[in-house]
Amino acid sequence: MQPARIHDHAVIGDGHSAALVSSAGSVDWLCWPRFDSPSLFAGLLDTEVGGAFSLRTVEPARVTRWYLRDTNVLQTRFETDSGALVVTDLMPIHEARMPGPWPERELLRCVACERGEVMLEVLYAPRPDYGRAKPLVKQEGRLGWRLEQGGWLYTLRADFPLGPAPDGGVRGRGLLRAGQRAHFSLTATDDGPAVLPPLGHFAWERVERTVAAWRRWAARCRYAGPYRDAVVRSALALKLLSFGPSGAVVAAATTSLPEVLGGEANWDYRYCWVRDASFTARAFYGLGYEAEAESFVSWLLGATWLTQPRMNVLYDVYGRRRLGEAPLPHLEGYAGSRPVRVGNAAATQLQLDSYGEVIDAASQVARRGGALGRDELRMLVRLGEFITMKWDAPDEGIWESRTGRRAHTFSRLSCWMALERLLELHGRGVLRGIRRPTERFLEVRERLREELRTRAWNRWLRSYVRVLDGDEVDADLLLMAWYGFEDARSERMRGTHRRIVERLGARDGLLFRNEDDRREGEGAFGVCGFWSVGFLAKQGGEGLEVAEALFRRQLAYANDVGLYAEEISPETGEARGNFPQALTHVGLIAAALELEAARPWFDAGAWA
Amino acid sequence: MSGLLRWVVWGLVSTVVLTGLLTGSQRLRLTRLNLPFLLGMLVTEDRDRAKLYGFGLHLVAGLAMAGLYAAVFSVWGRATWWLGGLLGVVHAGAVLLLLFPVLPALHPRMASESQGPTEVRQLEPPGLLGLHYGARTPVVVLVIHVVFGVLLGSISL
Known about the structure:
The complex is a heterodimer of chains A (608) and B (157). Chain A has 608 residues and is of the alpha+beta class. Chain A contains 15 helices and 26 strands.
């Protein structure tokens, strides 16, 4: 049996973990208690072994779905010939001063029959530990259906007739008539006795509280430019991928969704990439979410503290190094894409660009008057000193190539940017009283500039190139303008953009990352298309019109609820890779902010 | 050290050790029994504050139980580690067989098996021998109370 397409999923979450819900009404992915915990449902990766929690109509139904405005609360409407029902899916948010105790985690599914009568079929098939644990679900009367595994208790409670299923799960079927409702609350705990929240109208109270909480958050968005709905959706997706207790932002909610169908490029993205730092901080700041930006940067500086001046490529949500990578051979993989992996061995790679991105993220805080402690500033200087020693080393680069180290242009650009930012902080007096090798920073910055201007420039191609003295391009070169190394209107950047579009362009302005991706049949890389929009917006003038048109075309590749995966298949427009992907949404936000900056907010009416 | 001071000091020490063992058992996934959390939920609905308040209440309850142990040792006219351990077995038996079954009736926020959760009663009941909190819960309860008794029996000489 084929799983629902990546594209056909929506995400819900509570700032600790996230679940993917298909348009067929099935929760196909859920890891508890954190994003990177073993899964309870992994039907997305194996429909037989992975497990799922499905609510569906027995009759064929026409499905439409949407998020309640400015929330991460999902509604799916199933319309059959005999009636219509709406399923509301969410993970309730718990806030301080909220009445009542609350469970550690809850997935709440509320069903309301709107019209006629509809036969609802329920299948609860939990498969803890990525499907490796035996699912022994026991009925405990009014306390619900209980599954104990590894010290965790998963409890399903429902006011709908359910009975045991032959494979260890729970199933039920019943007729709902107009006005009737049913509620399904799945909770998990390992920390003491479980809290079992009540159903009925109490469940709807939790829906209302969660809707209100998300709307309060969305209302803080200061963005007033074009396509605000898409920008707010991206902001909500980004917030949903943020781990509340630490401020970390995971790259995606899933592992091993393939970049090539049937291929082996299946990676675990449920961790936090240092690489994404400056993009994420700028996105949060740009939208007015200062607290989130500072919380993220604070996490970042804390996570990298123990290993500095060296940094890992990625950390877990608590800032711990996660070095191991293991296959799960018992899982078939999405569309047969094996292996399914947990953990990510890219953690130990050398990505010199990360250093610049951390320093840029921290400098965002300083630019906006945020506080950086003296220890943090000393750490930034130590990172700068590390760069002055390592800047000319080959590395795996921003895309974490596993084919060996090379002299990546983007890594040099990022090192240049790191020193530029440190010198800027010095110029602003932020580093006053902290010992720093300013002369050395100046010297290496100039050497980097010289090297980028000479060896990273291919005069035959009239373009900057992916590696020094090379003849291939990479979409990351567009960021030379973003980081201020080149003016977007310069002849060199125009030439580079032309060459990138010529060699990496797919339909509708989508871009591959580099020529390897095109050869290997990967999808176009979501964020790269948005970088192109941002680049054109920076050019202003005619570029602005092109940027607007390009942005509109990129927006059309979101799925029906406004979400993006890592990649987009140029042939089908379908999502590829892990989902939803923070970096793609960060790219959308960055592009929108560039457009907003290029055209004053009071023209906003023109965007409608 | 006076008898009163010994009781206070070693009562607290034994209770802290008991709490530590219980927490360790939770971390080892042996049980979900969390006595401080259960006690704290008597006074607050906030699960984070419940653990803090519950820890204080647990210390007081441990002190009271240590006083009971001391009284029994006094009646017996002697205290040894094994007598303490024996009292610990009785103590664990009382928790498992007497306290746990009636807890839903005593605890204002605990659901019962017959009624299920309600708006105000949402806490999972322990069930027979505390088995709802994990199959190894009775063993954990027995072991930690025996350790509690052995400690008090050893130092109450």
